[in-house]
Design brief:
Helix 4 runs antiparallel to helix 5. The chain has a single domain, classed as Arp2/3 complex 21 kDa subunit ARPC3, CATH 1.10.1760. It is built from nine helices and no strands. It is globular. The longest helix is centred in the first third of the chain and has 40 residues.
Length: about 200
């Protein structure tokens, strides 16, 4: 009887965490649709300020790796379909892999490897840009029959986007700490439970 009660409570906890992750992922995707529109309204271009990246990066810290990956991959595609920002091909396709990498790497390092916040954020941002470069190369050379220019890509990823990068490095750690103080970010055990259930 005791084992049954324990198992039932355990399953209930897993289901609750699963529901919380699903709701949180949905909210972050919605935020990823709204923020770019808000930035564009005030003339703040996406390639410079990277508004869509913010909820995805945050998702890496508050979601399990699977959910964080899904948020990163779904957000640019949904935004392209619903708002035409960015264009579906090659823009949204490239961003799907880039942002998916952000979410996956950050969640894995933070929740599975217990790496501290700032190194996790930097590593995730660099990993996403590396994947973006690789995907950009494949799309240009294999599908669009165009030359991949490394200097152009690096300029867009690290120079043009400097304002957005600075915003991310300042805002994301503050938001994560506030969410942790509010007990919104699930503990490692609950993250593991949710991933197992997924």
């Amino acid at each position: 009887m005791g084992i049954y009660i324990f198992t039932k409570e355990r399953l209930s906890t897993v289901n609750n965490n699963h529901a919380k992750q699903t709701i949180t992922a949905g909210l972050l995707i919605a935020l990823g649709l709204v923020l770019p529109m808000a930035f564009h309204t005030f003339g703040m271009g996406g390639p410079v300020f990277l508004p869509m990246h913010i909820p995805v990066l945050l998702g890496g810290f508050v979601l399990s790796p699977l959910y964080a990956l899904l948020v990163g991959m779904v957000t640019p595609i949904a935004s392209s379909v619903l708002t035409s920002m960015p264009p579906l091909f090659p823009g949204a396709v490239q961003m799907m892999f880039e942002l998916g990498t952000y979410g996956l790497v950050i969640s894995y390092l933070y929740h599975k490897r217990n790496i501290s916040l700032f190194p996790t954020l930097l590593t995730g941002m660099l990993a996403g840009r590396f994947v973006a470069g690789a995907v950009n190369y494949l799309l240009l050379t294999q599908f669009l029959a165009k030359a991949f220019k490394l200097k152009v890509f690096l300029t867009a990823a690290f120079v043009t986007a400097v304002p957005g990068i600075i915003i991310q490095l300042v805002i994301i750690p503050i938001m994560v700490r506030l969410l942790e103080k509010a007990n919104f970010i699930m503990g490692k055990e609950n993250i593991n439970d949710s991933r197992t259930q997924s």
